[in-house]
Amino acid sequence: MPSLERLILDDKRKLSECKSDYDAQIRLLSEYRASVADLRDCEDEIQEILSRAASGKCELSLSLVLIAAYAHPSEKYIDSLCAILALKEEDLPNENIVELLERIPSEKSVACLSQVIDTKFAYDEYDEFGVKCLDALFAINTPDAWTVIERCSRLSTQRMREHAEELKSLRGK
């Protein structure tokens, strides 16, 4: 069975060869997802690649690595995912990283999410990044996570205040 890195490199090459063919790209991504789902014991390799990405030493497609991490969730990834988010770079798949943190609810993510929740990306007119951070905190569901949600219900943008209030109303249901 090929390594994750080999799968990513092959898929990245194939995707670049069919840049103008949307249907081919969708097919290739579907095949990649299936190949990644079939991998076994790949969490350490995913973590190693995420760690390289966090330190800026990874030439692989971060989006493809995140697909693998989503297929094989592990708390091992939290520190690297938080380090990538802390970069606050617009060209990174920040929202996908937050969705993964929601899928892997861990107390270790709370401080990171608290630090990035108010980040404003130029493309994000409706505070979707912050809303996704709130959803991840809701999934974590610890006192510290609720402290951040409570803070956002008072101090953030209207969209985030409304969403924080909505999450507070769901607490305990």
What are the key terms here?
173 residues; mainly alpha; 2 domains
How are the secondary structure elements laid out?
Blueprint: H1 4-17, H2 22-38, H3 43-54, H4 62-71, H5 78-86, H6 94-103, H7 110-116, H8 128-140, H9 143-155, H10 158-170
Helix pairs in contact: 1-2, 3-4, 3-5, 4-6, 5-6, 5-7, 6-8, 7-8, 8-9, 8-10, 9-10
Mind explaining what this structure looks like?
With 173 residues, this protein is mostly helical. It folds into two domains: 1-72, no CATH class; 91-173. 68% of the residues lie in helices and 0% in strands. It is built from ten helices and no strands. Helix 4 runs parallel beside helix 6. The radius of gyration is 17 Å and the shape is globular. The model has no long low-confidence stretch (mean pLDDT 93).
A few lines on this structure:
This protein is mostly helical. It contains 10 helices and no strands. The chain is globular.
Count of spatially separate domains: 2
Mean pLDDT: 93
* Helicity level: 55-70%
- Tally of helical runs: 10
The end-to-end distance, rounded to whole angstroms, is: 44 Å
Shape: globular
> Which consecutive residue ranges, at least 5 long each, have pLDDT under 50?
none
CA-atom Rg in angstroms? 17 Å
Number of strands: 0
Succession of helices and strands: HHHHHHHHHH
What can be said about the biggest beta sheet? none
User: Helix/strand-derived class?
Assistant: mainly alpha
* Percentage of β-strand residues: under 5%
